[in-house]
Amino acid sequence: MRILVLSDIHSNAIALEAVLDAVRDWDTVWCLGDTIGYGPNPNECIDRLRELPHMAIPGNHDWGVLGKAALEKFNLDARRANLWNREQLTPENRDYLEALPLTRSDGEFTLAHGSPRDPIWEYLLYGDTACKAMGALTTRLALVGHTHIPVVFVERGEDHGCGMGRPPVGEPFALPEARCIINPGSVGQPRDGDPRASCMVIDTKEIILEHRRIAYDVEETQARMRAVELPHRLSARLELGW
Ligand code: ZN
Fold first, then answer.
1. How remote is the CA of residue 178 from the centroid of ligand 1, in Å?
2. Element (H or E) spanning 224, and its range?
3. Residue 148 Cα, ligand 1 centroid: separation in angstroms?
4. Which residues of 71-104 are buried (b: 16+ CB within 10 A; e: fewer)?
5. What is the pLDDT of residues 85-123, one digit of tens each?
């Protein structure tokens, strides 16, 4: 089975559509949360996802919109955008988000937005936290989002520490047989200095992944954000990829 792994779409329908246009070699989609928040098209993004064969989990921004995460935990711009996203959401799409389970597993993979031990909030940015989070894993592999930075953490056999590295773009990358935590990066608001939408395609039989980057019309997303008066800082960051 080939899985298109998406995360942190963040209401950026232009970026999502560009990914779906460019990446066709998959059987089903796994979406790691934060489908909404920040951007201008929450319903379009959820509607599009629901048209696809997929499974999904919620992120902190989805929970913010549902009133399940305290908005005080968001910075002011994120909070404003979250409240705007909340106002837009249709009852059907609200029910859809409400029904998503916190984590899911399939074969060797666990899906969690932040981390296996704290699925909504924990950020896995460094090897030491990834290592501790692996203690909560009941499968060998985990897929997470939340940081918007594509990375693979690999448990080392000798000292049970964690190595980390960025999988090359556009080249098949065979995962080692150790425990790994994989982040596909963000579709709608990349933060690794590359403004192109980020995603991965994973072959679950061969355990091979490919990191893909897809350019999209950032200016169009920014224009849509301006039109509904979302915070300027949130649209400006898209062209810089942070
Ligand atoms: Zn996010």
1. 27
2. helix 218-227
3. 6
4. eeebeeebbbbbebbbebbeeebbebbeebeebb
5. 999 999 999 999 999 999 999 999 999 999 999 999 999
Ligand 1 mean position, distance from CA 57 (Å): 13
CA atoms within a 13 Å half-sphere pointing along the CA-CB vector of 112: 22
Q: How far is the centre of ligand 1, averaged over its atoms, from the C-alpha of 147 (Å)?
A: 7
DSSP letter string over 179-200? -EEEE---SSS--SS--SEEEE
- Contact yes or no for 11/41 (Cβ under 8 A): yes
For residue range 212-233, list pLDDT tens digits in order. 999 999 999 999 999 999 999 9
Q: How far is the CA of 186 from the centre of ligand 1 (A)?
A: 7
Count CB neighbours of 41 within 10 A. Answer: 26
Structure tokens at 27: 């059987």
Q: How far apart are CA 39 and CA 130, in angstroms?
A: 28
Nearest-angstrom CA–CA distance, 110 and 129: 17
**Structural domains present in the chain:** 2-239 (3.60.21.10)
| Count of residues in the chain | 242
Spacing, Cα 156 to ligand 1 middle (Å): 28
- Ligand 1 centre from 34 Cα, in Å? 5
C-alpha 199 to ligand 1 mean position (Å) = 14
